[in-house]
Design a protein that fits this description.
429 residues, alpha/beta, four-stranded mixed β-sheet, 12 helices
């Protein structure tokens, strides 16, 4: 009997050693991934799960840069997508047939990525730490994984206030679940990641995102951990863009209603090509029921005059309209018939400032050009911002005269001052 137990024990030990060999085989082939390195286990996991390939048969390049295209490809590999299902591309800088193209298209079609503005994805740019948090959060949402968040975690880092508005909640989610940790005591949200760091991120999230490869992902079992509190319920009165499945089917995948609204309300997020700071106008759903309201459409597939149909570009167009018309209220819907977004806005009617009165007194325009406030409600031509500190009242008056008479044959014009000392010219021909 004793010999029998010894034989069983030996068999178990041999089996465990075989498992160890198999588990380490994926990383052992790389000469630049040494046992004992902090990323060894993570690289072993990532390569063993076929999330990554090495940069050669014998090297992994742990310190190599991780681009946006690479990161989404790793995520697509985790989801085990069928590349044949995604032969097209929604982004102008992601050509169909490129190795990362199907993964990017899969992510775009499922709301996991939204691009960097102007219809682009920027696949060759290094992925930032906050971008990774957002992409992984969107993936977790897509696969019905645990979205619980422990509030106030950003405040524990000295640079927590540097996290972009769009990334604050996803970053807190990533910190809550140990996916992203501090780097030298800081979050470094705009810092980039190496291949080893990305391998560690996917290793750290392997249990949380376990539903990712399932065709019918199921919600995870809630964790009883006292340190993780449920994510807050949406505020009933919080702004949101009403949208139906019919509308969404007509929109490009990188047109995300929630992101459009977030851009308009909070300004620059993950798009480095725009620098607007959001709008001071207030959200007011009842505008659609009121007369004398301006309406601006953007984002339709049929809008052939505008290539820039990404969420950021649409939001930027709306912000410009709200700014140059000096509006105080706005509302956005997704129009079912046109398949585009509509901005309803109300130009504020305020008394002229002393600077505005001075500029108007300096204007020397022909009588045929009439001052007309109705231009605020129309798709008028415009110029600006004209800053008093740069040009002075006389300089602004001369610029307005040049725009209305030399550059255009204007018959109407109107001036707005959305903030003190900053003017916009609206004109109609």
């Amino acid at each position: 009997m004793k010999k029998r137990w010894i034989a069983i024990l030996l068999a178990l030990l041999i089996g465990m050693s075989l498992l160890t060999v198999n588990a380490s085989a994926a990383a052992e082939k790389f000469t630049d991934v040494k046992p004992g390195a902090w990323y060894y286990t993570a690289v072993d996991y990532a390569v063993g799960e076929k999330l990554f390939n090495g940069t050669s048969a014998t090297t992994f390049s742990p310190n190599g840069a991780m681009t946006r295209g690479m990161f989404v490809t790793v995520l697509g590999n985790k989801a085990k997508i069928d590349l044949k299902d995604y032969p097209t591309s929604s982004f102008s800088d992601v050509k169909a047939g490129v190795w990362y193209a199907p993964h990017v298209e899969w992510a775009a079609q499922n709301g996991i990525v939204n691009g960097t503005g102007g219809g682009k994805f920027s696949p060759d740019k290094s992925v930032t730490r906050e971008q990774m948090a957002v992409i992984l959060y969107n993936y977790a949402k897509f696969t019905n994984c645990d979205l619980t968040v422990r509030a106030g975690l950003l405040e524990q880092f000295p640079d927590g206030n540097k996290v972009s508005g769009y990334a604050k909640y996803p970053m807190e989610w990533a910190i809550t679940h140990g996916i992203i940790n501090g780097n030298g005591g800081k979050l470094d949200p705009s810092g980039t990641a190496t291949r080893a760091q990305v391998a560690q991120i996917f290793y750290s999230s392997r249990e949380l995102l376990a539903n990712g490869g399932s065709e019918n992902p199921q919600p995870p079992t809630p964790s009883p951990s006292p340190d993780v509190t449920p994510s807050p319920s949406p505020v009933p009165d919080a702004p949101k863009i009403p949208i139906t499945d019919e509308v969404r089917a007509k929109l490009k995948p990188n047109q995300d209603p929630e992101k459009i609204l977030d851009y308009v309300l909070n300004g620059k997020n993950d798009d480095p090509t725009f620098s607007f700071d959001g709008t001071t106008a207030k959200w007011k759903p009842k505008l659609v029921e009121q007369p004398n309201i301006g309406v601006k459409p953007l984002g339709s597939r049929e809008d052939v005059e505008d290539d820039m149909r990404s969420s950021a570009a649409i939001a930027h167009g709306f912000v410009k309209m709200l700014t140059r018309t000096a509006s105080d209220f706005f509302y956005i819907i997704a129009d079912e018939k046109a398949g585009c977004f509509l901005l309803f806005y109300h130009p504020a009617d305020v008394e002229d400032s002393a600077q505005m009165r001075e500029i108007k007194s300096l204007l020397n325009l022909p009588d045929s050009i009439q001052y007309d406030r109705s231009l605020c409600y129309e798709g008028a031509g415009w110029a600006g911002p004209l800053r008093l500190e740069l040009y002075g009242a006389q300089g602004i008056a001369e610029k307005i005269e040049y725009y209305l008479t030399d550059m255009h044959t204007a018959i109407q014009y109107y001036l707005t001052e959305p903030e003190p000392g900053v003017f916009y010219l609206l004109y109609g021909e």
